[in-house]
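re the bet — no i am not wrong, look at it urself. input seq straight from the record:
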Amino acid sequence: MKLQPLCLPLALAAALPAQADPIPDAQPGSRAAIAQARGAGHDDGVTWAMGYDYKAIFEPGAVVFTPALGDRAPRSMPLRFTLEAVRRGPTTVFNAAATHATAWQVDGHRVFADHGHGLVERYDAAADHLKQSFVFAEPPSGSGDLVVRMRLDTELRADAGENLDGLELRSEFGGVDIGQVVGIDANGQRATGTMRYDGSHLELRLDDAFVRTAAYPLVLDPPIGSTATLSSALVSGVDIAYHTSGLHSLVVWQHRFSATDTDVRGIRVTSNNVVRGSLINIAFSSGNEGSPAVATVRYRDMHFVVFTQERGLLNLRDIRCRTVNMGGGIGPLTDITNNPVVDAEQPDASGDLTGLTDAAFVVYRDPLLGIIGAPVAVDSTGNSTVGSPITIVGNPQAHEPAISKSHGTEYPHQMCCVWLSGGGSTMGIRLLDRTGTPESMVAWNGPSAMGRPLSSPDVDGDGKTFLAVYEEQEGPGVLTKNVWATAAWDADLLNSQSAIIDGGQIEIAGAAGKQEYGPSVCTMFPESWGTPYWLVACTQVPAGLAEVHATSVSGPYPRQCGPWYRVDSAASTFTSGTSIATIYSGGPSSIGNLPLADEAMIAWNDNGASILSRRYSAFEGGTVTQLSGAPGCGAGSGTCGTNSNPTPGNAGFAITLTGADPQSFAAFWRADLSGSPLSNSLCGSPCERIDGQIQLFIPPTLGEAEIPVALPCSNSFVGFTFDSQWIVISNQGTGCAGAPNLHFSNAIRVVLGL
């Protein structure tokens, strides 16, 4: 049995003042490092393998290995391996020129080609290198040393030499390391080999004595790794979305190999923050793909990814999309735009978490037309069909559009789009229905009376109320930024001409002289709580090293609930690309087929060197303890407990009754605000009870009941204490001695905390 939220009459007790302690650490569990992921596959006619700092494309008869040199390198510097021959002494075992190129095959993280003659060429993708192996099923014919000869084509430089232990191919930005040759036989016996490099050809050599006595199959095994200068940034543009069916998030980001070569990658991360499966090749070429955004189409059990791709002679950007299913498989590439003379940019995506439609929605900037939207339908095979473009705002100066990643329960087809204009000093807001049709007039918010530049907006909401977050320059001529939030909603969403109500702006990260930037927001879908609720994450640099912080905001008039929690403290001076996504759980909400949640997954770019993620709970603090001497009495008493942590701002907090007499028709919930000890009056031991200033009659259902206690969004209540107990009316055995039908549950003490 659930009732509407009850706000405790806290004025009956003296609340403790707000604490002024340093920023507390959140308790989100372990940190997941995406850098340990790897992958291999065959997509769009291309066979590929990848680790964190490299990619490899498998062409007929050759492998093109591209190290990630970072943004300092003006272009990518790939290394092309072409197997030409294998010989033993003077005898030719394999001659590539005399055979047709063998098709590459993929098995898990391995790519291989069976050349016949008992020879298999294979490449195993590891996180930090590509392991090259030549497998000989039987002793090669002939006698003498076994030599594998390859042609190397690259602009990377290396010194020629004989009897090398390894080969380093370098540029000023980094390069490729080829490790020592090792022979491993079927019994695990090992022997080291040597290399010879003449400036264009590399020979891998194993000594005749080992080849002659080895147990077969025999593997010749050098690793190929990538190196880059420490100042190079490899990753940026992080986004994340959660899926209720797959119980995991999809993290996407832009991976930089050079200033003119970026890819879009993805990885799945479970709700327990464990990397799942392989790296996902979302957009992979020798050009630039970037600015990825991800949403969820729950009806199709798929994620939806949108990104930019440079094409044509002028390298102008188009917006493209593709789906990623729950197993990590990708759908076909689909054009959102395809205009050879327009440079489309800054895409963002919204999905459908109601499970009622197959729709996604994309917004992007067209420098000639303004902010444009496009509906996208996703079918059961992952194909995307793009609808007609919709003008959201016809202002060519508008830029940095963002759209709510989730949409609501009460109004399940409602979205919100925000963007910047006026030289970046104002923010536009427009509500849209699920097809993308505008449902409200444009509202221009000028959050800064000084007209200071704004940047990096993000928005999310429940379909009725939305919160937009953004950076604002701290002051005239000042480089540091603060993070602000503004709420907006429509008084009558059914009236397409009604104006947006401005909920006002609040500064939620504004320490003077400190850098706060890169905000991201997700909604908690709290309609059953009676108030909108959001989580906000951003990066702060309080003491020279970047930290990822998160906090809670209550609405519809925004208020910050609790302090900024420190989610992670990176050992770097720069962290960017913070993104936060709701983790949905707890069953559907009371309206609209959307699950509720009070947790999120945060992903961020750590100094351009790695993608990290952590699970974050909005309400970590507070304590719930059993009062001594109060085990409960009577067979039908049940157990008093709570559904979550008692933290200020936790509007979904509730006191629960479980395990009571299923035939009971009535129960009373009692709350004591005085902090007085348990009383034995009327009933005596062991039926101890609390003397409650609050008492509510609640009819239980099958021995269960719940009373929501909406905890106020104010740190001034930190330390506030109340006791709680249930009295169940039951004919199941004897309860209280003075009143046998009264069965007392255990009593608990609840202390609000951070």
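see?? The mean pLDDT is 84. told u. also The two ends are 29 Å apart (CA to CA). so pay up
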